Amino acid sequence: MRVVPLTPALEPAWTAFVEGGDGGGSGIRGAEAAQPFHRLLWRDVLRRGYGFEDRSLIALATDGERNGGGGADGDGARAVGVLPLHLVRRPIGRPILLSAPQAVTAGPLATDSATALALVAHARAEAERLDVAYLELRGGGAWTDGLEVERLGGAPTWHRLDHHALFGRALPADPDEVLGTIPRKQRAEVRKARKAGVTVVRDADAGRFHPLHARAVHRLGSPVAPRAYIEAILDLFGDEAEILTAEHRGRAVASVLSLKHRGWMMPYHAGAAPAAAALSAYPALYAAAMERAVAEGLTHFEFGRSAVGTGAHAFKRNFGFAPTPLPSHVALIRATAPPDMRANNPRLEPITRAWRMLPPWLADRLGPWVSRQVV
């Protein structure tokens, strides 16, 4: 087995490996199972939306290993592992090497832990060569058991960050059964919204979604992602991405952009107007998304990741979803401490407070540039 940078000639082997599902995995979509963020589509989304440099790595079987499973291209190169990797140049500080920007979870996808660790070792060498602040791999899996734990200069070689949790569960077989799976208090909120006239429709583009998303993240003190990034998701993922919008009296009050992947509906980015809370628009929106997923034959619903201790984390628990730890693993190269870009980080509170005070037009203008800091 050898690890090499991804080239256009090797892209068919990458795609065959990821789309073929040769990475295994178990549990909530399995931390080692292929994610949308392992697909080259996500690389293309990041390239179009942010211009991030692709530094992805692919593990190829040697001649003696080519009769096994994995993904092969037309020239016979067989992939046994992949690691999506991107160089992120930030407004403040040194660049970082990340797997993967804007991803819930990525990291290495491989036929075995040894191959995954080989990919990680090459990624770390690349991080040192590029002299970045740090290398971050989002997600976990059996491969993390093999990370070096010895201390170098009094500091651990790798830092595990348990800042986030992932929420997901199976869906019922009938759309009419969805409401019964939602806990009583949130079920009452859904009924309240529907009684008040909140309806949910599918939007063909980001025209209504993006302004709602921009206002929502502004209220949280976070920068909005470039609209080009949102539009790239819709364009490149096609029928595997959709926007649902909650309306009240013809006015959009909440909206969610979701991905669909291997039987899962994955609400990914969302936004709402201030009026959404009084209308219980979010509960109605997510209940409708679950019902729509069942109607389309999808079997599971992933509520995305949320930082522990935040309102989003509590909302998802109250909606009947149990949290699953979603670690990140960070190797410090030039940085002296692991990153913590959570909105509820007390050290960032002065920054988030100042951002909330910006007029919306200025936050919208600066947000896409500043958002590189928190991808």
From TrEMBL:
Residues 186-317 form the BioF2-like acetyltransferase domain. Keywords: Acyltransferase, Transferase. Its EC number is 2.3.1.-. GO terms for molecular function: acyltransferase activity. Gene3D superfamilies: 3.40.630.30. InterPro entries: Acyl_CoA_acyltransferase, BioF2-like_GNAT_dom, PG_Glycine_Bridge_Synth. This is GNAT family N-acetyltransferase. The lineage of its organism: Bacteria, Pseudomonadati, Pseudomonadota, Alphaproteobacteria, Rhodospirillales.
